[in-house]
Amino acid sequence: MLYVIVIVVTLFGLLYSYFTRTFNYWKKRGVAGPKPVALFGNLKDATLRREHVTLTLKKIYDEFPNEKAIGIYRLTTPCLLLRDVDLIKQVMIKDFEVFADRGIEFSDSGLGANIFHADGERWRILRTKFTPLFTSGKLKNMLYLINERGDMFMDYVESICKNQPEQSVHLLLQKYTMSTISACAFGVDLDENMIKTLQKIDKLVLTPNYSHELDMMYPGILKKMNSSLFPSFVKTFFDNLAQTVIEQRGGQPTNRKDFMDLILELRQNKEVKGAKRQEGEEIKSFELTESIIAAQAFVFYVAGYETSATTMSYLLYELAKNPDIQDKLVAQIDEVLQRHKSELTYEILKEVNYFDRVFDETLRKYPIVEPLQRRAQKNYTFPDTNITVEKGQLVLISCRSLHHNPKYYPDPEKFDPERFSPQNEKNIPSCAYLPFGTGPRNCLGMRFAKLQTRVAIVKLLSKFRVEPSKNTKFDMNFDPMRLVVFPVGGIYLNFIRR
């Protein structure tokens, strides 16, 4: 019995030593930070799914108000949480070349070659080639598709709200954003079977699994093991979707000028080439395989519908809570539509400019993606500090913490679109507002997201008011079982015909 006890104690001691082996890293370097817990580092509650990581990081951020950066541990891996907006600007903009990578790589064959997760030269090439898809001209060409889906969405809202005013807002809006992405990216119209499949994929992709924690503890292990963050069902669906659309178009671009047309134009060259950034540099290229095409289809779909549906859910929630703001937005919508006889062109939509303030304040109060992260490509010392990150280490930026810092946004819990009026917006420091990131690696689909949201909100509020229902919660707790930041139980509101 004594031998068993000795063995157990010895094993426990060895495990404890292993899972705390890095915990003096920041202390030795004079960087302040919270005390880590064996195995979990500073993310215990987030790892155990007791709270969303956005709340975990905000607690750490608030605990060290006088620090420019905080040394933390994602499980056993040291990384740096930035507080100072000037340091954030160094990472995101000024020294972007050092921090171009996100550091979330995984198997190419498991959808890891998508533009969001890709790093290095592949990301640069994809970014350069896909940026033209989101110019004003391209968005204007897509607007008729968004308008058509918006009208179909309104017919659906009218039919279901006639007898049941209370609705789960997020589930309602997902139908709209799924249909716009399907039409604008792939030329596909949704049926009920497709919607059910996409809802299944939503749960598989946006429910956190412990692959993320494995990669935190052993950075890069998913790539080395050729493993994916997502189940094979998701890969198979997007492989088949891309293949079906390509076959329907005969492998050639059409006049739709949508996402798949751009892919097919690139595919005709067999290899996708980057640009020469300096004299004598070798031009990098890679083959646009079917798996890489499927990976782009995946990220455009999932990122395109989910973030917009979630943003609109929060926006309508705040309008229901703040009827004076809703009245102001509705009045402008009515005036613009009446003046233009209900026509909605790209330019006319821009005239509903109060929407921009409401939209920006929504994402100020409720940033969707948390945290932003960048990986150092070499040892780097932050200017005017003694803080150094080593090659391969991650720096983290907590958008919620920045957006709720009273130093930048007085009375941060108040929903106040006037923060983003022309006279007030100039008072917001650079890099203190990051719902879409910033710099060369900001969100590629930002303008599309704003356009599809604007169309839906204008159409919806021209016919309905939103009001709190008996199931509306005014004290939100974010769901730790959701990768994007969304409240437990969803958002319920009443849709009242005007």
Characterization of this structure:
The protein has 498 residues and is α+β, with helices and mostly antiparallel strands. The protein has helices at residues 2-19, 25-28, 44-47, 53-63, 85-94, 120-130, 136-161, 169-186, 192-206, 211-217, 221-224, 232-248, 259-267, 290-321, 323-339, 346-350, 354-365, 399-403, 422-425, 446-461, and strands at residues 69-74, 77-82, 166-168, 271-273, 285-287, 372-375, 380-381, 388-389, 394-397, 464-468, 492-497. It has a four-stranded mixed β-sheet with strand order 1-2-9-6. A hairpin with a 6-residue loop joins strand 7 and strand 8. Helix 8 runs antiparallel to helix 14. The longest helix is centred in the middle third of the chain and has 32 residues, at 290-321. The chain is globular and about 80 Å long. The protein starts with a helix and ends with a strand.
Question: What are the main properties of this structure?
Answer:
498 residues, alpha+beta, 4-stranded mixed beta sheet, 3-stranded antiparallel beta sheet, 9% strand
- Order of neighbouring strands in the sheet with most strands: 1-2-9-6
CA-based shape: globular
Helix count, per DSSP? 20
Beta-strand percentage?
A: 5-15%
Number of strands: 11
Low-pLDDT runs of 5+ residues are none
The chain-level mean pLDDT equals: 92
Distance from first to last alpha carbon: 78 Å
Question: What is the element layout, followed by pairings?
Answer:
Blueprint: H1 2-19, H2 25-28, H3 44-47, H4 53-63, E1 69-74, E2 77-82, H5 85-94, H6 120-130, H7 136-161, E3 166-168, H8 169-186, H9 192-206, H10 211-217, H11 221-224, H12 232-248, H13 259-267, E4 271-273, E5 285-287, H14 290-321, H15 323-339, H16 346-350, H17 354-365, E6 372-375, E7 380-381, E8 388-389, E9 394-397, H18 399-403, H19 422-425, H20 446-461, E10 464-468, E11 492-497
Parallel strand pairs: 2-9
Antiparallel strand pairs: 1-2, 3-11, 4-5, 6-9, 7-8, 10-11
Helix pairs in contact: 7-8, 7-20, 8-14, 12-14, 14-17, 14-20
